[in-house]
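Purpose: get a first structural picture of the assembly so the mutagenesis plan has something to point at.
Setup: two entries, given in the order below. No constraints added.
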Amino acid sequence: MSSFDTLHILNKSPGHPRAAQCLALLSEGDALLLIENGVLWLSAEGLPSVCRVFALSADVAARGLGNTAGNETRVAFSDMVALSLQARKVISW
Amino acid sequence: MSTLIMIDQPSYGSWSGREALDMAFSLAAFDQPAALLFTGAGVTWLRREQDTADLGQKSVEKNLSAAPVFGIEAIFADRAACQRYGLDERSLIAGVTLVDAISALLNQYDHTAFAG
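Result (structure tokens, whole complex):
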């Protein structure tokens, strides 16, 4: 039983061409998980609201973004495993 | 589980593309279905007659020629990127399948990964 169609794991910051490619492919029913420098999208413009967004809390906190309020769901490392199991397929950008 | 390894980095200048190739070959060596897709500047891997003698490296053309031996199921390349980098049927290495719709191709694989 899959809750998401594709889980997109994005570790590229805004400005990286692969990040633009990832965001262009997002569709309803997908999920976006921001990790590493991908969490910098939380402080930038241009994050589409087409699907659910998750962000790895350790990476968010490390970059001083812990207090930014957004629509994303913060997750721990252990939740990453659960998220990937809920997806029909996974793309690691 | 089938895996598509994508390479969007040029063939020389960094090691990330070769790391991607190692990922693909490792999967195939352990009987995990794997294929390669070259996009963007990554298509420059696929040009014939690379001569790396003065670079002191093995050419990625030679590395790639081992793909069928390892059991890599397919080598795909983005047609538009090939055109951008001046690659046509005559200048491409053998065994490359050109694709137009990358999102449709991604849909066929359980897992897609880049390196670097």
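Chain B has a mean pLDDT of 92.
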